[in-house]
Structure formats: structure tokens, C-alpha cells
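Researcher: Here's my situation. A collaborator sent me these components and asked whether they could plausibly form a single complex. I don't have experimental data yet, so a predicted model of the whole assembly would be a useful starting point for our discussion.
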Amino acid sequence: MQITNGPGAWLRPTRFAIAWDMLAGFLVFGVFVALALGSVGTFAPLASVTTTPLSLDPARLPYYAVRTVLRMLAAMAASLLFTFTYGTLAAKSRRAEPVLIPLLDILQSVPVLGYLSFTVVFFISLFPGRALGAEFAAVFAIFTSQAWNMAFSFYQALRTVPHDLDEACSAFRFSIWQRFWRLEVPFAMPGLVWNMMMSMSGGWFFVVASEAITVSDRTITLPGIGSYVALAIARQDLGAIGWAILAMTMVIIVYDQLLFRPLVVWADSFRFEQTARQVPHSWFLQVLRQSRLVHAATWPGFVAMRWLFRARVLNVGPSRGHRHAVSLFIDIAWYAAVLAALLWTANIIIRFVASELHWADVATVFRLGAYTLLRVMILIMVASIVWVPVGVLIGLRPKLAERIQPLAQFLAAFPANLLFPIFVLLIVRWHLNPDIWLSPLMILGTQWYILFNVIAGVTAYPTDFLEAAAVFHFHGWQWWSKAVLPGIFPYFVTGAITASGGAWNASIVAEVASWGATTLSAHGLGAYIAQTTAAGDYPRIVLGIAVMSLFVILFNRLLWRPLYAYGERHLRLD
Amino acid sequence: MASDICGSTEMSATVPASDSEPVGPEKVVLQAQHVTREFPRPSGEPQVVLDDIDFAIAEGEIVGLLGRSGCGKSTLLRIVAGLVSATSGAMLFRGRAIQEPTKGIAMVFQTFALFPWLTVLQNVQAGLDAQQVPEPEARRRALGAIDLIGLNGFEDAYPRELSGGMRQRVGFARALVVDPELLLMDEPFSALDVLTAETLRSDLVDLWSERKLAIHAILMVTHNIEEAVFMCDRILVMSSNPGHISAEIAVPLPHPRDRLAPAFRQIVDDIYSRMTAGIAPAHGSKHAESAVSLSTWLPAISPTRIAGLTETLETSPFSGSADLSALSARLRLNAGGLLRVAEVTQMLGFVELRDGTLHLTAAGRALAAAGIGRRNRLFAEHLLRAVPLAAYIRRVLEDRPGHQAPRSRFLAELEDHLDPHDAEHTLTAVIGWGRYADIFSYDHKHRLFSLGKPP
């Protein structure tokens, strides 16, 4: 940016200015028009949703795609709002922190698709007779798949703000508000953008799953790619599934190019490391930055931002922590309130679940949970055995890695549930055992996290070590076990954590699959939750979700966390 | 070289605050009255970091706080900045007690503390934004400060595009633009290479002596003796355990100062001997460091540096004893770093410090001459004798049936007397020495001390 970019700066001629303007204008207005068209349907009455039948005509797909994208955008906006408030509160409030952070940890482990049934009922009752309720439920489902890790990353950034910059803010007497926008948000930005991308990848899976849902007796179908696929499955139309996959591919590419690529490049300027390095490139951001029209259009925005940084209304100095007797009293009252809320909630849950359930149900659910656990573990192992060597080999060839990395990220973003019908078709045709052959669907979408984390790890691995290994003739297993694997271990664990979390969530969709009238189901906790949801059996849904959350939490605490801590302690490369 | 300068003793004489030329209350910019700072410790007895600090800074003065790391000089500066509060006593700025960061005081940081996502101009302007200076005026003043400090043309650059010296110039511009009456500098040149630091120092002194700065006084923290003598009008020498001002030295030389001038060297040598006085075992003042005990804080100095020091001392031109300032120039070590190595080497009995001069002991000569195996054995002998913690760990390991002991055991004992960070540091230092001396081994993975080699 130039220092003289005042309101009139855009009037000065630059080379190719007209071309840049036209390109930028075309793209920006194209997006606006598409979004406007999509949002018209959002406020339609519910009747129109249930009476206007979905069409498998491929010409309708662009409209459905826009509707799906809109839901994603709405959920992302909500997630950002949540991140800034929840993350800030957790990092700044001594009292809120011990409650909010464990809560976030639990929320992260609860399977999103499990409680879809509750939220649909809740939101529809909130907007009776309008499609908006169902829309809200879908957006909420996506939100719950996106918000937690974003809030976590923001919280962690706030806790690790560099001490000297923090002191500089105090010494120059920044207000809380200025500190937030000048120090905390920029410092958190690169991590936050990365987490937004991860969330978005995961979100596609849930948006597709949440557009066509059956809760007890009623099926709600929102126009979108997900419901298009659901209809194609019901009508056994393989061609339509092909179109949907194509449309989704286009959507993800456009999303990546027009939103995330520019965001990543932009966020790169907030990197804290002081060293210069290769900056990623985004042609779209380039177009926006070159265009005078865009400059003119965003100028009021910049002025508003500068006003925000300086706003007098919000100019409160940071409070200095003095602890008094009053403060102690508030502490006691606060923790008493938290305890009371906890007991009250526990009471409600136990009463609700115990009204219909017996110990036999609990035993069944634990047994099914063990099956799903076994699946997740075997799948992660298999995926690791396949993708770690592949990732290492790709990572050692930087040119190849550069090309494969976006592909792996694309594959991770692609909602694997669109591919399920193809698998089901094969299983039905070959009469395969669903208990075994439905399992790969669970990891179809999330195995890529292992691949691209391993590639990233190898890319970051210092070449000195590889050269040393070569000079001392490390061969075969010694090369893998002494030189490479320890070096990429932390990256691998990060990838495996994400992959296993995703696999648990996917089990709800993957353990039950149908093609036309044929329904295949495996034995597992995911199938249990899916079936009880379809039947509207609320106590058993709650039981299923609670047990799955428990499994996920224990799995993380007893396996992944210790592994990660081990890697951090012993296998650091510094 | 110092002895042939007549009158040098008066020049560098200790000037107690009360004896310095009387200043009216309106001339006093900053005054510290019995400032004490304590940190709580798990054992109950608080750790005193600053003890009864008294000093005043008048208009037109550059005052240096000089001391080794850990003497509390940075904490003292942060009390002035309002970032840390005093446990007792008062820090008065223009007669008013400093409770929080105060208008009229600005600070330059050792690590620059620039916002990497803001351009040079935005960084400089940020402090004015915080004071709600209207936008056009803020921009005009920021550009003025950038111009003054020699950053013209870099307005749109991001800090990561600049060299260290240029970054610190941004740090100065940011501090100057808010028109502070008192400028605080926390080791502002120590992260820069020698050439860059020298240029920046001279530029700052030039701006100051040509009265181009609106600042009324400067307080700077440094551990570099030459730097302090080069820039300051008055130097407060600080000693540790607990941090206190052990000497006050006036530097009545006109700017610009010549580092090679005999008068300059005389002051530098004088400060060297004052700073080493605290180390000499014979010193009897109440603040003198007592003998090494089980819970004495120890710096993690590598044994190879200790051996290296004895070797340097043994060879020409020193052949057995060396002046500290000459040694620091030769080894390209700053005074703080050299003193720390010297202190540990003296603790182990390889050198003796007397009046700013290091003398090699007989053991030191033996160490310098020894080959690898013999050197480790000699080191072990002295380590077990001089460092009670090392001897204690060795004894515990010998007494235990399995000859093993967890790290946590010793850490817990240290934490009764030191704060957790210092305890950690001390144990790390002893682990390094013990491994070199081969008096025990330590398994990092299992955090376990043991005798003998791993299987």
C-alpha cells in the first residue's frame, strides 16, 4: 500500500488500470449476484421447501451450489464472531477460563451429526412455518463443526502474545480496544486463517449431510448439493451423482481461489517471524489490489478501520488486577454458580436418559463404541502405513510436493459423503460384508490430513540431517527410524489427531449407507446414533452421543496427547 | 595506562546523590525513593530483587544503569515505565508517583518490539493513535520523527524488510514521536552488531548534544561498560543479591567522546574494578555475595568456556594475568558476559580476581595445559569441592541402592530457596558441569540422574 492513498488516489492513471478494474468488477459483481439469488430462497416459507420438489436437472445445480455456499459463509461468519468473543473471554478472564476451556475441549469431541436432530427441532420451532428454521439448523450444524478449533487457536494465540510487544502496548498506553486490533488479532491471524481453512474443509462434509435430514417422522430437504445427492441416491441416478461431484469440485476450486488463497496471502503479512521468505501468491488478491475501483470502494472501509483503532468511545485502559476481599467473594459466588449449573444439568440428563433406558442399553452402546473404536484404530494404522511413506517420498521432491500439496488439501476439503453411493453400489453388487467394507468410508475424507501433514513435515525437515544420513550411509530401516520418522513425528501426530477426530464424526454417516431401497449397516456406535436419530428416539440419541464423546475424549487423552507431548519434548528440531 | 593521568581520581570519584550539584525540585525529572521490589517464593520468604533504591535524574542528564544480568536493572527500568509496580517506596515522575504507564515517558526495547504487521510509518504512528492525536497531525509528526532518525524513504517498509539497526531506528522514532520528557532505553544496542550499534549510539548522542530532541532526560540500562561511559553523564552501578546501587560514577567528559582517550580508559578501568569488587571473596560489605551454598543460583556457563578462559590467560600476551577490559576486547565479550565466566572460573578455583585483573592460579595453569582426559578429571575435582550442589547430587547417587535419582527430587529442594525459573537454570548448569566432569550422568528422556554409563 502507498502512503499517499487518499480518497483521490484511485483517480490517478496506472498501467492496465481499466483491464484490472473490469476483471475485478466482473468477479466481485458476479459473486454478489450469485449470493443475492441464493439468499432469496432462504426466506421462503417452509411449505415451499417441502412442496417444491428438488430436481435432478443438472441445470439447477449451480443454484443449489450457491445455496450450499451461502450456508457455509453464514456459518463461517458465526464462527468468527464466536471465536473473537469466546476466545477473548477465555484468555482474558481469570474466572471464565477454567470453565470455558474444558467446555471447548468437550464440545470439540461431541459428534456434530449426533445432535442435528435436536437442533432441527429447536430451530424449526423458533421460526414456525418458515424455511429459515431449517436453514438455521443446517448453518448451526456447520458452525459446530467449524467454531471450536478456531476459538482454540485464537485463545492460544492470545495466551502466547510476545512479551515485548505486550510491554510496548502498555508502555505506549494502548487501550484494551487498540491492543485487541493492533496486537492480538493480527498476531492470531495466520493461525486463525489456517484453522478457518481446516474448518471449511470439514464443514463441506456436514453441510452436505445436514441438507437432507429425517427426524422421526418428517424429512426436511433444503435446496443444496447435499440434498441433490440424497435425491440421486433415492432414485439410484448415478449420472446425477456424477454431476454433483463435478459441481462440488468447481465450488471448492472457486472457494479456494477467490476466498482462501487471498486470505492466506493476506494473513502472511501478519506472520510474527521477522525473516523475509517466499510469499505465497494469489492472482485474485493481485487483481483486487491492482484495481482502482476496488481501492475506491474499500476506502471508506479503511477509514472506518482507522477510526476503530482510535475510537475514543472504547478507549478504556487495561484494568490493573487488584485482588480484594470483594474479589474473593465474587470468586466464591462464581464457582458456586458454576457448580450449581453443573449439578442441575447432570440431574436433567440423568432423569431424561434414565426414564427409558436400562443398564443393558448402556452395555450395548459401549460394545458398539468398542467396534467403532476398533475401526478407527485400524483405519488410522492402515492410512498411516500407506500415506507416511508416500508423504515422505513426495516431501523429498520439493517440486512435486508443491504440486501435490494443493491436491491433498482439495481432497481433504472434498465432502467424501458425495462418493459414498459409489462404494455402496460396489458393496451391493459384490455382496461384500458391510462391517468391513463400509469402514473405509469413515476415513475417505480425513486420511488426507495425514498425507499433507507428513509432506509439510518433510518439507520443513532440515536438509543437513538428510545429508548427514547420506554421508554416513544410513540405509533401509535405519534411514527411516533414525533419520526421517523422528523428524516428522510431531507433524504426523497432528495429522493423525485430525484424521481420527474426523473418522469418529464420519462414522455416523458412514456406518449406515443406502442405495435406492437397499440400506447397508455396520455394527457400530455411528450406526446406532444414525438409526436412533431416524427413529426419533431421543434418550438413546443422547446416550449414543455421550458415549461417543467419552470415547473420543479418552482416545485423545490416553493416546494422542501423550504422543504429542512426547514429540514436543524429545523430537524437536532445535 | 591509567596511572599517568593526573586528576583522574577526582573525575571518576564516587558522587553520592546528596553531594552532586544541587538541583531545584523543578529540575528533577525522576526520583526514586526507597524503591524495593520483592517476588514471592514458595518457601514463604520473598525474594528481594531491588533493595532500597534511591536516586534522582535531573533535566538534561543521560543516566546509565549498569550491571550484570540478574541485578534487577531491567526491573528497575520497568518500574519507571509503569510496567511493574514497586513493593514499597515511591518512584516519582515530576513529583507524581508512577502507578501505570505515564504520559511523558517513552521506552525503547532491547528486542525492538515492533509490530511486524505494521509498516514503519504505522509503527511510529501507533503511539500517537493511542493518545488520540488527530490523524493529519499524527501523520505529520510521525513523518517528522522518521525523517529525524534517518529513516526517510522507509515509511512503507515492513520491519522484516529492515536490518537490525534500521529496526531499532524505528524503535527510537516511535519513542521520540510522542514527545516524551523522559526516554527509557532497555539495552537498546545489545541486539545489534558492533558497527551498527556504534553508528546508532553516535547518531543518538549527536541528536542529543545538538538539542534536536525534545527529551529532557534519558535513563538507559546497559551491561556494556564502554557504552555507558560513551553515552552517559552519570552511571549508577548496580550489584545483585539483592539488587542495589553499589556506586555512582560521574562522567564529566564532553561529547563526542573518544574511546581511546586516556581519561575515557581510566573511567572504564575504574568501573571494571568496582564491578569486580563484588565478586572478590574478601569484600566485607553487607551486600557482598556469600560463599556458594547448596541453593546458590548458578549461571549455565559451558565448561569449554571456562577451559578456554584459562587457556587464553596462559598464552601471550597475558601469560598468567590480564586486565578485564583488555581481555573483554580480546575475546570480544561484553563486560557482563566476561564477568560471568570469570566469576564461575574463580568459584572453581582456576582464577583469582583482584582489582579488575584476572590471575591464573596453579590449578588454572594445570587446567590450561591438560589434555582432554586429565582436564575432565581436574574439573571434576574442583567441581566437587567448590559446588555443594554437584557434590550433593553425587553423594545422593552413591548412597542410593540403584545409584539413580529423579531430577524432580533436586529441583524440589532448589525451589524451596529459588524461584522455579532460577531453580531450573541452576540445575541445568550443574547438569552441564557434572556431565563434563563425568561425576554423574543424566538421562534427559527419563529425567534421571545416575552413576555410570547408560547400558
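Model: Some features of this prediction you could bring to your collaborator: Residues 291-455 of chain B form a domain with the Arc Repressor Mutant, subunit A fold (CATH 1.10.10). Chain B touches chain A through 40 residues (CB under 8 Å).
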